[in-house]
Amino acid sequence: MSIQPKDLSHHLSVESASRKPSPLKAIAGSVSKKGLNVISLAGGLPNPQYFPFREMGAEIPSIGSWVRGAENEGNLSNVSVPMDSQNEDDLPLSVALQYGKGSGCAPLSKFLKEHTQLIHSPPYKDWDILLTTGNTQGLDMCLRMLLNRGDSILVEKYTFPSALQAMRPMGLNVVSVDMDKNGMLPESLDNILSNWKDGNKPRVLYTIPSGQNPTGSTLSVERKEKIYALAQKHDFIIIEDEPYYYLQMDEYQHKPEAVDPKFTNEEFVKNLITSFLHIDVDGRVIRMDSLSKVVAPGSRIGWITAQPLFIERSLRYTETASQNASGISQALLQALFQTWGHDGYLAWLKNIRFSYTERRNALLYAMDKYLPKSICSYIAPEAGMFIWFEVDKAAYKFADQGKSIAEIESEIHADAIEDGANVACGNWFVVDSSINDKIFFRVTFAYAELHEFEIAIERFANVLKKFFNF
Amino acid sequence: MSIQPKDLSHHLSVESASRKPSPLKAIAGSVSKKGLNVISLAGGLPNPQYFPFREMGAEIPSIGSWVRGAENEGNLSNVSVPMDSQNEDDLPLSVALQYGKGSGCAPLSKFLKEHTQLIHSPPYKDWDILLTTGNTQGLDMCLRMLLNRGDSILVEKYTFPSALQAMRPMGLNVVSVDMDKNGMLPESLDNILSNWKDGNKPRVLYTIPSGQNPTGSTLSVERKEKIYALAQKHDFIIIEDEPYYYLQMDEYQHKPEAVDPKFTNEEFVKNLITSFLHIDVDGRVIRMDSLSKVVAPGSRIGWITAQPLFIERSLRYTETASQNASGISQALLQALFQTWGHDGYLAWLKNIRFSYTERRNALLYAMDKYLPKSICSYIAPEAGMFIWFEVDKAAYKFADQGKSIAEIESEIHADAIEDGANVACGNWFVVDSSINDKIFFRVTFAYAELHEFEIAIERFANVLKKFFNF
């Protein structure tokens, strides 16, 4: 049972609504009805004989080689990208190095669309994907597609600073939605919208549902359903930014190591959190997926999934903005995915998931061990890269100096750097600094080496001693 | 003698002027004054051990192997990109696959900046470059940096349709500047600006100076100097879009082949057209260079060169829009440039230049041979990929049917496709269709095989017989 997405064209910005297809479309794909081979002197493409790359290759991990103790542990395979190929699943260099389709090269788009179907099975007809050059570009594009200067956008109370840096110069009024440890509060959202008075009611919600940056919180299915019902009630679009989606972790057992649940691929998929995209019967969710956290940020490849209206408008924009994602990146990714197949890629994602669980556990254990419990509070994140912890302001030694939260955090941060531990300050992520009344820090278990976690946290705990009574 | 660029901050758009640096900058590069190794739990970077590529390589042409009859003709060399490296000219995968600098990875930026110095030696202090994901993205970025909705922008009478498709949805009023066979007319430009009445006088000129798309015209140094003087007089910014810059060709000798001038690298550089960048004493030129026509469009790498104000504002935008160009593309390009060096790259560019001269000559010769001289007129382009030719409207057989220029061109185009020849219609490139009163077609010598040129042109000439008296 597949339904038609709703007509949501009233949500397009002036800029997006006025985009026209390029007249140059007539250049490509012309076929003579007389059956003649059409010689093209029309399109300004360079002849591939002038491309200075003849063949490209890389070493990739063999399927399963990432499992510790596996027979082929550590084994590498060679993948190569030939100059030419007639196989429709290949992305040869003659195509990858040429101007490409704004939506992405066919075999890679196909793989990522199949993957999206496998994980989210969107419930309405004719949904599609469009390659981006990562979620940063995807967000910039979506904002310009949906919003005009002076419009308002809803975001979580603490959010990704680059998203704010994209929104504010566009003249958007950023509206802070309250959160608790489980993410955005539907009640806060409903309150804001039900009591909106100034006209120009927000029409777009930007959210990071899984392993939210910076809070590490993850929206439950129940909250998602409530938020989706609000989107229908108040007619807003949900931009679902999901770079951390596959970094979902098992329950923390207060031990520094982790036990691999050894999921089958089916169990792994079944255990993944239900996405907004999966419950989106109207076609009002624009999901942004990224390869940055599970393959490599330097690939600069992501994709959006949405209803045809938003895909078509995004394609028009892509053609005049980024043209297309790097063909060289696309060719290398396609070589990887083609070699691994969907099963191999799911196995890789299970490995990433387990590795992050180990890392989270090790960092949490270090925090449990060194941070003073009486003033530090945090939860074990179910997903993502981040642990967000509050330090009790009431225990701050120098309250009489009248410093702002941002000043207090900055001083502690500077001191911690001197002592060899770098953490992120809560105020960097605050949407509305006028309601910033708690001291937070964000730590990540993504980057440092495992053995460094305890050292860094112990250093930071010692810094806290200088500033807090406990 | 190097001078300070002018303060041109009054040219920034509302959007660009309001951009702020990211607070996350504090995350990177923190150094402990106590000399401790700072362990970072701050930045959300994935650990490179989770990147599924271990080594990347490609086959590239050996230096000089592209010269016909050379000892090493057709020879290929292998280049490889290691996972890690301490050599500062290397761009290893551990860097290329990670989040990168918005301005581009250091060794590639350095090479392209040196190259820019070598070719253009900008005359003012502290100019810099910034990597883009190609000139399409570069233009989108520059337009958003300089212009607000309702502003006007000056462009050549016939221009690249994607540029217009980028400008118009942004709410820009596109002003057509008259041209002759040698490009934009400074008199027309001065006329428009001197007689501008409505307020909001145009502050930006977009131009394709060399091998202009679609007209194939190239601005002489004299015209550039006149236009630059007008930019100073009327205080406008010049966006110099130069994808075809290196496709500069020798004089056409009315023969189907070409003679290699066998330039030394020094002669080659000396013979290149003087750019707007070279005469830009104020820092009011933003030059856009592209690798699409001389290396590969699928690399999606270009760069802008400009004064520090524009580079810094562009960097702020890049950080929240594209983040950075594909690291995989950058790594492969750096491997190529590092292997070739500047001399090898110049030798490659000489080869491209000569190959395009051969192609242009072959197409011109076919046009001379088959197109009816009495109604078709064109010049031999000095640069680029395109030949632009007019077909005399006075000879059109069906003038009594009252068709528009666009309708006439479309009918001829459709007929030519049926007969196996695809050419581009003049009306696709017209800025102001109310002043479109001539029939034009654009043909390119870039893509088809040499032996196909005569076939295609003969087919097209036969189609003209149906529509024109000659």
UniProtKB/TrEMBL annotation, chains A, B:
One GO CC term on file: cytoplasm
Catalytic activity annotation: an aromatic L-alpha-amino acid + 2-oxoglutarate = an aromatic oxo-acid + L-glutamate
GO terms, molecular function: 2-aminoadipate transaminase activity; aromatic-amino-acid transaminase activity; pyridoxal phosphate binding
Pfam families assigned to the protein according to its UniProt record, in alphabetical order: Aminotran_1_2 (PF00155)
Enzyme Commission number(s) from the entry: 2.6.1.57
Keyword vocabulary terms for this entry: Aminotransferase, Cytoplasm, Pyridoxal phosphate, Transferase
Residue ranges crossing the lipid bilayer per the database entry: none
Compartment(s) of residence: Cytoplasm
Keyword tRNA processing: no
GO BP field: aromatic amino acid family catabolic process; lysine biosynthetic process via aminoadipic acid; tyrosine biosynthetic process
InterPro entries reported in the protein's UniProt record: Aminotransferase_I/II_large, Class-I_PLP-dep_aminotransf, PyrdxlP-dep_Trfase, PyrdxlP-dep_Trfase_major
Family, similarity comment: Belongs to the class-I pyridoxal-phosphate-dependent aminotransferase family.
Chain's role: Has aromatic amino acid transaminase activity.
Name the record gives this protein: aromatic-amino-acid transaminase
Organism: Schizosaccharomyces octosporus (strain yFS286) (Fission yeast)
